[in-house]
């Protein structure tokens, strides 16, 4: 025992010596730390060539007590990463070897503006306000090596290049919307996003707190909102739950305020309210046993606009929520409210008649106006999605333009404030960041980094004298497919940084190529915060595939959604930054396994893509005497979740179809209760027109050809197939089989998937469905 203790002691000493020698051996400045890397790009920046290096005597001097938290924020970073403990003093003047932080209200800059000068003697930051000073301090952190964000000590020269900066934002509203309803983030996870927002000068946090799928904020007067409304039973039978207590909400608001971020709550009305109706069914036009929705999309049951009790409920909720959020804005949703129930509800119709409203759209406007009045009592301004234009805009409403820019342009032309967040501008950052066949499943759409970067919140159609109504822009992170906190990160970053520059930096100074260069530095900063940001993966043009069949030879070409180095191996080892760099298409004449990934300047790598390349002879066709058109089906009823459950199917009903589209007749809109659940298997032959290599794609659970399972989607969300695969086929009949299982998987009902099998010949750009003319049994 004693010897063991001694042994451990010696080991500790050795480790301490190694650590010590590492500490004294300073890292050479990595490439990503060279140059000026500030995001968002400052309005004016001149390099003076006179740098300043922090040492143990460097002080932080603040001009007033109110600036001390900013100095403490900076000192905290320096303490953790640089092992420096700068003294914080209050004083009027910078001294030598100091970082001075002051406020000068006379600066001819906007409220959030600041100046920063660094030189031999130190750094002088002057904010137009404390908010501006905070941003000056954030820019200073970005002038230091990216390792300043490290929570652990790093041995480096803490050098600040000499610069003269005059900076202010182009827009006052630079926002990030976080949906914590479709999935949920803990308070600590939310704070992690707030940290990154603050680094890049994002100043509005729009917190989407209620939905069809969940109610996430404690309301003391209505405890069932969270008791019932914050938990749902998913399609696989598991429970998904989470909500914030009012104390937790206050904590997030406080944490954000310390970082000069205003939190804007969103309480959805009159639609997207099923979780509230599950808690209090009497708030619906037609009360029944509602459950929080477990499939994505839009629920038809909404708050009844005819019941006075609904307006009392909304007033009560606003009365509890408004005081938690000191900011001036309150978001009431207003989007995607189906009018189906209101059209037949006697109370809604009575409300329409009694208020002289024209139709249900004016009833929606009536609803929003009443919410506006309730908010005004709390001194809050209403924000709503652009549907609040329907039936007439509430007098003081600010419009969040999402379906395009048209709503925003219309509202600004009516002299209303506008926040731009159009899907078409790439600002729905939960959309795909690259090729859907390699990216994690997403709701659809496209949000490339460059599109977000190049977004200009001022639409061409908007006359110059209305420009001031555009307060700014926001990226939205909807969370339907964000099953984990890592996936939230993956979609948020680096896109949020692109929005930061699109809303802060002067239009004529923006430069995507230079932004990508600075992003290498910013990414290392994000690494220090444990952010799982998106790294573009190697993609094959026209849709990627992990299995490529060929007969003679094949060339594989790769691209990435933004310029980034790709590395690969052919010996099944995992590629490292030192592996062979991809520079030109890779030719295969024999079978092999290619592993390829992207690598950032800081050494961080994308996931590995493994591509099996297989040399094949044409798989022989079959003789099918008496083949007749169509496919044979067998259908089993039961609550199956996916193919493995079909072993329990006891009775199968045999039938026939002429095309894949006929496999399933049931339609599903709101819930699985609407359908008798089933699984369908279709078998037959596909008639291949010519010898060739064919690639297949499907969202069904399985697709077989020549008795080989070519596509296995079990375990996947059956949307945007990520399992496309190919086979060399002789002209003629080939046996096929496909299996579809009716279930809700990851919030996606397979009832909404196409049942088609798509096919294309190798080299063709587009897939086409296998047509009825190609199917036989
Ligand atoms: C929205 O995406 N429904 C605002
Ligand atoms: Zn009603």
Automatic annotation (TrEMBL):
Signal sequence residues: 1-21
The keyword Metal-binding belongs to this UniProt entry's keyword annotation: no
Pfam family, one: CHB_HEX_C_1
Keywords: Glycosidase, Hydrolase, Signal
Domain of life: Bacteria
Annotated GO MF terms: beta-N-acetylhexosaminidase activity
PROSITE patterns, sorted: PROKAR_LIPOPROTEIN (PS51257)
Catalytic activity: Hydrolysis of terminal non-reducing N-acetyl-D-hexosamine residues in N-acetyl-beta-D-hexosaminides
Residue intervals of the PA14 domain: 627-765
Catalytic class of the enzyme: hydrolase
SUPFAM superfamilies with a match to the protein in the record: (Trans)glycosidases, Anthrax protective antigen, beta-N-acetylhexosaminidase-like domain
Active site: 336
Record-level GO cellular component terms: membrane
GO biological-process terms attached to the record: carbohydrate metabolic process; glycosaminoglycan metabolic process
EC assignment: 3.2.1.52
Family: Belongs to the glycosyl hydrolase 20 family.
PANTHER family in alphabetical order: BETA-HEXOSAMINIDASE, BETA-N-ACETYLHEXOSAMINIDASE
Protein name according to UniProt: beta-N-acetylhexosaminidase
Source organism per UniProt: Porphyromonas loveana
Lineage: Bacteria, Pseudomonadati, Bacteroidota, Bacteroidia, Bacteroidales
